[in-house]
Amino acid sequence: MKPSFRFAATLCVSVFAIGFQAQKPDGEIISAGRKFVHHSNVLGEERTYWVSLPVAYDDPNFEPEHYPVIYVLDGKSAFFPLAGLVDFMSGRESVNFQIPECVVVGVDTSNRERDLIPDAAAPGGIAGNRFLAYLTRELIPIIEAQYRTLPFRIYVGHSLGGLTGTFTLLESAGVFDGYLAIDPSLWWNGGKLVKDSPQSLGRLGTKKIQRYYLSVVDGADDGGQNAHVKNIHQLGFSLAANAPENLKWKLDVIPGTDHSSIPLLSWYNGLLFVFQGYDLSHYGMMQNPDAIEPHFAELAKRTGLFMDPPQSIFWILAHYLTTPNRYPDAAKALKVIHMGLKYHPQSPYLHEKLGAANEIAKDPVRALESYQTALKLNPGNTALEEKIKKLKS
Fold first, then answer.
1. CATH 3.40.50.720, domain 34-274, yes or no
2. Cβ pair 218, 253 in contact under 8 A
3. I want to staple 333 with a disulfide (CB 3.0 to 4.6 A). Which of 59, 209, 223, 357 is the partner?
4. Rounded to an integer, what distance in angstroms lies between the CA atom of residue 275 and that of residue 293?
5. Rounded distance between C-alpha atoms, residue 165 and residue 197, angstroms
6. Residue segments in the chain with a per-residue pLDDT below the cut of 70
């Protein structure tokens, strides 16, 4: 290529790039949650928190439901990726039902040592139990007053946040139902929590089921003698010897991670553990709808999470069983939808699908009634209006 041609080509590319960059993006703004600032009387300062709601929370096709709540510390960095992971593990769009849909709350911990070290002599002079008082007396009541929540709370903390979570379990069990202590800083104060854990576990202050997930980096490189890694494994030994029956726990060694990268896999593995028994196959439920209710009864026994089978489960089953190019089956569809309406009688979607199932069953009178009910519950649904017109004609 001649120099003059090279210059001309470069100039054209540069001008094109400048023109392209100058165009203003005109895409839709997508919200991943809301950020709030409020004054804490307990801490005597302004505090920040973030909230992400399930996709179905305000869906007009769904009857309002209640949800477990996940509180994740270090909200500034952890809230957005964790909220995305929770959505993927539970959301209709991913057709993934590993865990239930949850409200996710990110808790700001900008001064981590002050907030998260459970010792009045720590830098900053504020004990970890004062931060716990902020959570229990102020933030949790705010969330439970403003949002539709189930009485099932999960604490997620990494490093010093995992220390605080472990402290909360051992000293104030029952505040939360599930705990993710991710590579926690149990070396604090000479491993005091670990050393005191046999006594703390022996007097665990609740009979509620507590599910405690403890992750740690692979310490093979130094023979596991690093004080950080060693204390976490020592707590595992103590749990094995002293955990009461209502405390279900897991120690998860995650290879190929370091202290900074371990949270992502820990969130995934830890949520599966806390909600152990929720993960279900919608294909299996579609083949055997009678398994739905026993599945959620067993979940309550295993985790302490008492919840009705959610609309999201009936949504996918009803969709598959009433869609011509899926697995249409009028009898199973009617069974699934009537079961769903037992728990969610005001669900526009389920009434609409009841109409579709009745159409498949060649019962246009009941189909029309169901579509009309769905339209009353969700006025303005033009697709339903068309179906009603078609049946009336």
1. no
2. yes
3. 357
4. 17
5. 14
6. 1-24, 119-128, 220-225
